[in-house]
Amino acid sequence: MISDLGDVLAQNPLSAVVFGGLSVVPPAARNCPRAGSPSLGTRVRFPVGQHDDLARAHTATLRAARATHPNGPRIAESLQQLRFTGAEFADCWDRHEISVRANGRKAAPRPAGVG
Fold first, then answer.
1. What is the dihedral of CA 80, 77, 27, 66, to 10 degrees?
2. Residue pair 55/92 in contact by the 8 Å Cβ criterion
3. Which of 40, 59, 64, 100 has its CA 20 to 30 A from that of 70?
């Protein structure tokens, strides 16, 4: 379960196998847009061909969340953190795309040890 800001609120066992368990990640760092940042190295779980689409989708969702919570401290904190991750976020933000992802498909590599 993911909030409108991309914060991971809950994770089921299958998600933990595919995307990595969150028990070792501090709650404040459990955020999809931050995890997808090239500077953090966590997006290697997804095929390279999806990186741009995922970055754009997460950024567009954050822009929609900002419209809903324009003065919210959590959105301001998220945006400030993402601005320090590199030019990719700024490029996506400058596109001014807005969307809300209700669902979608992601291709993820097969977890180690799974046949």
1. -100
2. yes
3. 40
CA 92 remoteness from chain centre: 13
Tokens of 22: 């969150």
Closest CA to 64 of 77, 75, 52: 75
pLDDT in tens, 52-101: 888 888 888 888 989 988 898 988 888 888 887 778 888 888 988 888 77
SS3 31: strand
Is this model's pTM higher than 0.85 or not? no
The helix/strand/coil state of 8 is strand
Other beta carbons within 10 Å of 57: 21
Q: Write the pLDDT tens digit of every residue in 28-54.
A: 778 777 776 665 556 666 777 877 888
